[in-house]
Give the backbone structure.
Amino acid sequence: MEPLSSPLFASLLAAVSWLVIAALALVPAGNAFFARRLAFPLGALIGLSLASFGLQSIWLHAEQLTLPLGLPDLPFHLRIDPLAGFFLLLLGSVSAGISVYAGGYFRTETAGRLALISLQYHMFLASMAFVILADDAYLFMVAWETMALSSYFLVTTDHERPAIRSAGFLYLLVAHLGAIAILLCFGVMHGGGDYSFDALRGAELTPFWATVAFLLAFFGFGAKAGMIPLHAWLPEAHPAAPSPVSALMSGIMLKTAIYGMVRVIYDLIGGVRWEWGIVVLAIGAGTTLFGVLYALMQHDLKRLLAYHSVENIGIILLGLGMSMVFLGFGHPLAGALGLVAALYHTLNHAVFKALLFLGAGSILHATGLRNLNDMGGLIRTMPKTALYFLIGALAISALPPLNGFVSEWLTFQTALQAPLLEHGVVRSLLPLFAATLALAGALTAMCFVKVYGIAFLGRPREVRHPAHARAEGGGHDAGSMEQYGMAWLAAGCLVLGLFPTSFLLMLNRVGVSLTGQGLSPEALESSWLWLVPTAPERASYSPIIFLLVVLAVVLITIRLVRGFYHGRVRVADPWDCGFPEQTTRMQDTADAFGQPIRHVFGPLYLMKRHLPGPEEANPRYSIKIEDRHWYWLYLPVARLADYASSKVGLLQRGRISIYLLYSFLTLIALLIFVR
Amino acid sequence: MALPLSGQIVNLLAALLLLLAFAMLAQRRVLTLIKLFAWQGAALAVSTAIVAYATGQTHLYFSAGLTVALKVVLIPWLLHRLIDQLQVRWDIETLLNIPTTMLAGIGLAIFAFSLATPISQMASTITRSTLGIALASVLLSFLMMIVRRKAVPQVIGFLSMENGLFFAATSATYGMPLVVELGVALDVLVGTFIFGIFFFHIREQFDSLDIRHMEKLKED
Amino acid sequence: MNQLPGIALQVLQSVLVVLVAPLVMGWVNICRAWLQNRSAPSIWLPYYTLAKLFHKDAVIANTASPLFRLTPYILFGCMWLAAGIVPVLATDVPFAPAADIIALVGVFAVARVFSALAAMDTGTSFGGLGARREMMIGFLAEPAMLMTLFTAAFISGSTQLPTIVETLAHREFAIYPSLAFAAVAFLMVLLAENARIPVDNPATHLELTMIHEAMILEYSARHLALIEWAVAIKLVAYMAIGFALFLPWGIAPAGDWSALPLALAALGAKLALAGTGLALLETLLAKMRIFLVAEFLSTAFLLGVLGMLIHFLVR
Amino acid sequence: MEIALVLGMPLAGGLVLALFGHQRWAPEASAFMSFGTLAAAALLTARVIADGPMTALNEQVFVDPFNVFLVALTAFVAFTTALFSRPYMRTEEHHKRVNSARLRLYHSMYQLFTFMMLLTLLSNNVGMLWVAMEGATLSTVLLVSLYRTPASLEAAWKYFILCSVGIAQALFGTILLYFAAEKVLGPGGNALLWTHLHEVRGQLEPTVLSLAFVFLLVGYGTKVGLVPLHNWLPDAHAEGPTPISAVLSGLLLNVALYAVVRSKVLVDGALERNFSGGLMMGFGLLSVVVAAFFLSRQKDIKRMFAYSSVEHMGIMTFAFGMGGPVAAFAGLLHMTVHSLTKSAIFFAVGHASQACGTQDMASIRGLIQQSPTIGWGLALGTLAILGMPPFGVFTSEFMVLTTAMREHPWATPFLLVALGVAFAAIFGKVQPMVFGETTAQRQTHPPALVPVFVHLAIVLMLGLYIPPYLVDWYRQAAAFIG
């Protein structure tokens, strides 16, 4: 193996370079010159190269490497295969955009904070790369938990605020519990050899233990991915972090959980069963709906985006679940299609969610605002950001011809393979899950109309906010580095949306490497213009033609209208409906926009409303939506632990005689036992 | 097989030891407790000396001498002095009433005997049957420590446990090697000194040697 | 393969739809007037209105952004595109492989999102109100629509409208109970999506009830004209989808030019019939309270799902 | 020679400091003596690596792979703790919590304590091991009550009584052991020599040995802090001076566990069934679970970490109880990383509580703002002790858990629940202490944080890479423990 031409070695080198950048951040010279000027652009370059190595490895055979580190009997094993390559591509390319953005975003930090952020940021990136490259349980766990730890410290960057501290705590706690489940899963899979993935792959499991391993992996990784009911940390932690970090976490880190799920379930456990798929589908559907419905209720922009991450994880799970159902029933073609759809959505979500979080970061930087209810009219002060954010918003709303649509379309196509299934109930279940997806897609569109309409359009809603003086008067658009970062990701949305076929071929390689079979030959032989999931007469989609036609039609219309009619325009005040005292506060707020949803889905929410009375001089409506999971899952568990510890506490009442009695009784009991 | 005379005497002394242990368990007055403790030490020393004489293990004489010096003379004297200085001559309060304690003690003794019987069968020493008694007196001292509420009786309980251990050593094996015996004795001595220091500190802090004052550190 | 005739047909078909759409609107209005015992306006009135609007000076709110001015064109483009995908006259639609029924729903979604955004752009309370209601109807109607389409897709094994039509139109005659459910669901979605009674009233400006009109309050002149025209095209497109799924007879099969005149006639008849039916419905029904719409559309969704399930059960 | 030096340095230190411990230079002298001990231990280690096991002083002391590694560890942590106690005790003096007489006691007893622990480890005579262990108790009991506050007196009293009583049971066990050995080896000193006992362990009487093991386990287990014998431990840790808490947790518990493991080796040789292992696993598991639930109710920071020590000693006991090369390896590794991490935590905690003037966790806030190094030291140390990779504690826990899953699957749910609860409890309390608005004040003496970060760096290294000679060493010891 030529080390230099090997993508595995090169990826390792890239990951180590991130570690080196992290370490260099501690060099205090020149007001943290390195961290301020060089670290992030360099990190972005490394990300790009990592993406290219990953891309390369998708088309190659799997490679392995062993490092002389780690446990005595279990040195660090590394491996790169199409699946790992795909996720490296995701990590590298998305993080490149985020890193460029971060280079601009963090520039104004104080030296000490900046050094810490740069250290943890690049450590975070490197640990994610190692998670993907790991080929044994130990290295995987080390990288996995390092990832949790470094992101925890990033989340608590602004630790002066108590809310952020508790968010960080919750985050790390859930992450740790998830990690414990994953560890247990590796233990269950273990079949006598060591803990390298090769040995785990080779282990023969009975159906019972395979199912146990599946459930452990699913919930362990699901805790990280933010699926319900283990999602509670996500909407707390992601908004708490600085925006580029939120982008990294939502965009990439959640995907490492998907990676882990696919790796463990498809690759290590193998022999996927359809019952597992039903579990995944059920949780996925719940997660999807829950995520989007709660997102609609949010008025904190970053929190809203975080809930959308929950939703999109649900969509990915729907794809995975369908794939598992088909594979379990012995339909590898449809199974591969589901997997491809899920992985495609993984990549898409990484790109547009990162873009949206970066946009939210720019808003926060420029105006200091996170609450949508205070925003409005930002399109005038930050037109570039508005454009990029619009692309992200359309993409996440699954509107053609952007990328979100492609993966949802593929998921729908997978669901439409349902007639293949012999099992009547399952066959009719799949379209129902597709219906959830449809509902979620439409709700997402509603939510992003709300976000975009309220943040960027209209007029500033609240003047009481001091930051608004800035936003109205001297508000500024994002800096150039930030814009480059967002432009890169926006371009990603377009490319992924317009050229899906090349990505489909790539993902097909991943599917082949995992399930042994890929998409149908007809699908693979279709030209680059046409996206064909199974056969051209069944379904096809060509985003380019689509876009060209829309553009052509729109241009023709403009041309015609301009050509035939005059272009005279008068600018006036908006119509006041005969009520001259219109104020900006009379616009819809984010809370108001969610009102139909609250009405339709009322029982789902735990609402605390404050309705202003007729006498109030300064009436304000406010609403607080709480997550029911807190009350039926998290708090009871916490109370149970508390109760147990209060009972255990009774053991130790301070009286020495009692302590002596314990020793005495222990002795006597053991003596009796010995006899 | 009839026991030789020395064996019979040792057995007698062992019974005395056990009786003294019970007496200490039942005793309410500190001064008497110290006296009983001294007597226990004396019985231990005599039995050790007899074993030494009967078996020709010369180091046991040394051990007996050490016991006399420490447990019959030095430690009771130290305790007396402490009690004089600290003026703690009150009656002893117990957590459990005396009859119950005695009943528990009898149960313990039976348990100890049944536990020791199979082992003492293997012993080759003339004193082997006393192993059960030694174990019983260790457990009885333990029980005494549990039920006493004041610091001084607790310490006496501890020391009497040490006596039981010594007795076990002589009865089962004709005593531990000398270096160990010396080490143990040193530990006991230092321990007693430290106890003494503690009595003063405790008294200084709490105005009493009642360990009920020392129940502040706990989980709530 | 020579695709030129196909493309020509495609262009012809979409231009036809665009041009005919106001006429259908006019027809519906006439029927309604007749049914309500009013004297009917001219069937050409929508054309007059459009021409009038195109000639006026546009007034744009000073709070509007470029998005506001772009939106009418996007709307119009989207609807034109939708009209191009649906096989109105013939199944020989070369553009159809580029966008199947899911993409078709996507096109309508794009239009909806942009019109809602434009409504919020001027920062008036009416705009926001309209946008929010429109999006609510959208999220309820879209899944119902997809379910309806999926039923047809399951029957024909394809998500491409021409294939669906060919399958449905040229199969042996059989009663599909699933399609019956789907048809009812589709009708309900059609009413909701096109802002018709009982969901919305295209002729009202009452703030308590209006949905679509609230969104376009700020538009005037040529922008308004484009929007109104787009609305008309949308109605025709929906009707055409309905014909394709439930009344596919008469649509010319691919390559069969001789069937075109018949197809044209069939289309005219079907449109006239549908317009009458729509007017009848609008006359018979009363406008619902806004939150009853949710129930109305969830019924549609339920029917769509039921149709699909029935398809699986009675297969 | 090296052995004599290892034992002689702290003994001499204790005597010298008993005379001069009140001088200004006493802390430096103490650190110097500890450094001497460390150097001697290093020499000894090198010698053992080169020449293999050996005995000395008329076979009364011996070195084998098992104890030499603990000797090195003990000497190392004793040295770093001496470094730490230099500024710590000066600050305490500055705050008038101790006077010079007590400082003399402190420094002298500290050295003696080191001596006693090293003697326990090196002693070949099982009886002397007992004597030294009791000596270790005696030398620390006055240190626990150094502040003479009511609470510290109470803690010291409990420590003294419970440990003395416990260890008295161990003496009974030793007597039984001698009783069994005497039949094989004949009466006299040899029958208590470990090296001889180990050779004949197969011939020892099983019933006696199982009885002996019960007494030894209860006796030394009290010092290990196994539940329900642990009650002295949190009190003594919380009320004594922090350097003493550090060595109690970091070293004394290890030494006591060492004694238990030594006993186990003998018993396993004599008994067919895995009697000792079962008992140890049971105690280990109970300790882990109970300690985890104790954690969440703590208010005192040192008390909380004391319970964490109980938990970790439970893990080690469980690991040694499982036996086998991997579990024993893991147990040894856990001993190493736990003592390094826990002492590092106590160093950080000591400075933190001095800076805030309290051990009450509710009043310690925002350490990172006042002193980033203390804050980070505490945060990283806590995460390390909670088993977060890449720190070494995770390495050993990984090995323990994976072995347990293979061999005793029933135990893993308990372990995992306990680890989860412990994580929530400790981390939830430490986080607000480290982050947020600060309550800390500037300190008069610059804190000694080199030890903290040196310890953590070693622990970090052990998480990623265990040097080959260390692996060999652990393996030999693990093979020996079995």
Q: What stands out?
A: Chain C has a mean pLDDT of 85. Chains C and B do not touch (no CB pair under 8 Å). Chain C has eleven helices and one strand. The first strand of chain C starts at residue 58 and ends at 61.
